[in-house]
């Protein structure tokens, strides 16, 4: 293992041990620590310093506020390749980004707390950009990026689970952690769970699993807009199906409906007879599907870029294709 890779691995460990109590992550402190340990573990379990061409000299990572750990894997991979990394911190929550730069001190990583217009200066002399955010933000950013800058832009995507219901307790325990990790934030959190069976047993098991998980990992506080959304959705579920609910979680089981923005610890269950009932997903930008089906072909045909087991939705492996893109290869020049 090279000296640089060893230093990067130590930086990842250092960041994962930081205290997130004063960071505006939207999560409880326990939830933030779980997210940090999970993200760091995925990086440390992977191979760092793997080149896919001539590494870029300088890359800007445009960070979003919804998943505060998102820059870690790219910062670690690029720093291990000797790339200078400039982190554009989200204006609403710069603390975790600054802590990341501090942990990577001496490895060419810096954090910048700038508004959108001022942050465009970071792209001067850069040959790569990784950006996360809303589709609107990324469309505007893309129009302002110099044509010489290679880019990998990642906007909103939806993820779901498709399960058989043949082992409801085991499946529910796994899916509960997909819901608990990051409290539904980010594109890899399940917006809906489609069950190829009756949903009653799975709903009961999910309610128990979410209640148990909340004892050790409480959720963060709801944002002001989420309270009315929560009440509207649980009320609709009671009217059209069933709703199991506590102050920290809800399991809503209804007929199939449109995917909606995720709410923390809210599991949305829909009963379907066959996978082809999900053909409406083809029109959407998709990320991840968790399933216990043995054959993934029908799910991959819908446009999911990653199919995994329940419980692994928000635990993507290092060096994967992200949204179907080999990010490091895209930013690297061919030899």
If you had to describe this structure to a student in words, what would you say it looks like?
With 335 residues, the protein is of the alpha/beta class. The chain folds into two domains: 3-155, Aldehyde Dehydrogenase, Chain A, domain 1, CATH 3.40.605.10; 158-308, Aldehyde Dehydrogenase, Chain A, domain 2 (3-Layer(aba) Sandwich). It has eleven helices and twelve strands. The protein has helices spanning 3-16, 29-45, 71-80, 95-103, 116-119, 135-144, 168-180, 200-216, 226-240, 297-302, 327-331, and strands at 58-62, 84-88, 109-112, 128-132, 150-154, 158-163, 190-195, 242-245, 250-254, 266-271, 286-291, 306-308. A seven-stranded mixed sheet has the order 8-9-10-7-6-11-12, sandwiched between helices. It has a five-stranded parallel sheet with strand order 3-2-1-4-5, sandwiched between helices. The mean pLDDT is 95.
Largest sheet: 7 strands, mixed
Sequence of strands across the biggest β-sheet: 8-9-10-7-6-11-12
Mean pLDDT: 95
Class from secondary-structure proportions: alpha/beta
Q: Structurally, how many domains make up the residues?
A: 2
Number of strands: 12
Shape: globular
Radius of gyration in whole Å, from Cα? 20 Å
- Assign the CATH superfamily of the largest domain: Aldehyde Dehydrogenase, Chain A, domain 1
CATH class of the largest domain: Alpha Beta
Q: In DSSP terms, counting alpha (H) and pi (I) runs of 4 or more, how many helices?
A: 11
Note the run of SSEs as H and E.
HHEHEHEHEHEEHEHHEEEEHEH
Report the end-to-end length measured between terminal Cα atoms. 23 Å
CATH architect. name of the largest domain: 3-Layer(aba) Sandwich
């Amino acid at each position: 293992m090279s000296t640089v890779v060893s230093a990067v691995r130590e930086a990842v460990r250092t960041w994962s041990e930081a205290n997130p109590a004063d960071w505006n992550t939207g999560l409880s402190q326990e939830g933030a620590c779980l997210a940090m340990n999970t993200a760091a573990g995925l990086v440390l379990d992977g191979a760092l310093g793997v080149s896919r061409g001539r590494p870029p000299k300088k890359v800007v990572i445009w960070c979003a506020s919804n998943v505060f750990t998102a820059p870690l894997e790219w910062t670690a991979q690029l720093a291990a390749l000797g790339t200078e990394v400039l982190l554009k911190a989200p204006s609403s929550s710069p603390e975790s980004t600054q802590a990341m730069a501090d942990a990577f001190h001496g490895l060419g990583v810096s954090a910048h707390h700038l508004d959108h217009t001022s942050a465009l200066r970071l792209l001067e002399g850069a040959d790569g950009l990784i950006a996360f955010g809303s589709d609107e933000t990324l469309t505007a950013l893309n129009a302002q990026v110099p044509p010489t800058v290679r880019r990998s832009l990642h906007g909103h995507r939806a993820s779901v689970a498709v399960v058989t219901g043949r082992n409801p307790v085991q499946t529910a325990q796994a899916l509960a952690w997909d819901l608990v990790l990051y409290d539904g934030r980010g594109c890899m959190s399940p917006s809906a769970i489609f069950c190829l069976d009756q949903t009653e047993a799975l709903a009961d098991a999910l309610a128990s699993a979410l209640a148990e998980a909340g004892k050790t990992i409480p959720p963060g506080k709801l944002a002001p807009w989420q309270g009315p959304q929560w009440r509207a959705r649980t009320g609709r579920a009671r009217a059209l199906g069933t709703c199991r609910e506590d102050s920290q979680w809800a399991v809503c089981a209804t007929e199939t409906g449109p995917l909606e923005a995720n709410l923390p610890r809210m599991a949305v269950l829909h009963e379907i007879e066959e996978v082809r009932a999900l053909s409406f997903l083809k029109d959407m930008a998709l990320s991840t599907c968790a399933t216990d089906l043995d054959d993934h072909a029908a799910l991959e045909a819908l446009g999911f870029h990653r199919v995994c087991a329940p419980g692994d939705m928000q635990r993507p492996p290092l060096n994967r294709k992200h949204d179907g893109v080999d990010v490091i290869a895209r930013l690297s020049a061919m030899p």
